[in-house]
Amino acid sequence: MTALADILDEYEFLDADDRYRLLIDLGKALPPMPEALKTDATLVRGCSASVWVYPVEEVGRLTFLADSNAAITKGIIALVLKTVEGKNANEIGTLDIEGALAPFDLRNQLSSNRTQGIPNMIALIRKTAARYASAD
Predict the structure, then answer these.
(1) What residue ranges in 61-110 does DSSP mark as E strands?
(2) 33-60: per-residue pLDDT in tens?
């Protein structure tokens, strides 16, 4: 996937319809999440769409598999995951994910139904990172 700054550069020059398409394309580019991982334990609470997030530790980095049953929501997930890409658990715990996403102005660009679960996704990622950091 493309770097967050590159995505923002493109996003800023698009109209609303094209921004939706960009988010959908970002969601399609996420690595597939096996159906077996889409369980109640990986379900993010408080999202209007179904959203699943599963941590994977790889060579000192914490990555996440994620999916949603809604295309635009899946694109939002891709943006959130892009902010933590390549980071270890300690770095994710201190990262200003909301600040990294602020330039996208998602709350004003999308309906409240589409954005209401973003804080819950971020909280789950932080909680997971804290759990992995304390295990080190």
Answers:
(1) 61-68
(2) 999 999 999 999 888 889 999 999 888 8
> Burial, 127: exposed, middle or buried (Cβ in 10 Å; 0-12, 13-18, 19+)?
exposed
Dist. CA 83–CA 2, nearest whole Å: 11
User: What digits encode the pLDDT tens for the residues 103-135?
Assistant: 998 888 776 666 778 888 999 999 999 998 887
- Eight-class DSSP state of 15: -
State the pLDDT at residue 112.
Answer: 67
Query: Which listed residue (26, 47, 89, 129) is catalytic?
Result: 47
Domains of the chain, earliest start first: 4-135 (3.90.1010.10)
Length of the chain, please?
136
Q: Please say if 117 is a catalytic residue.
A: no
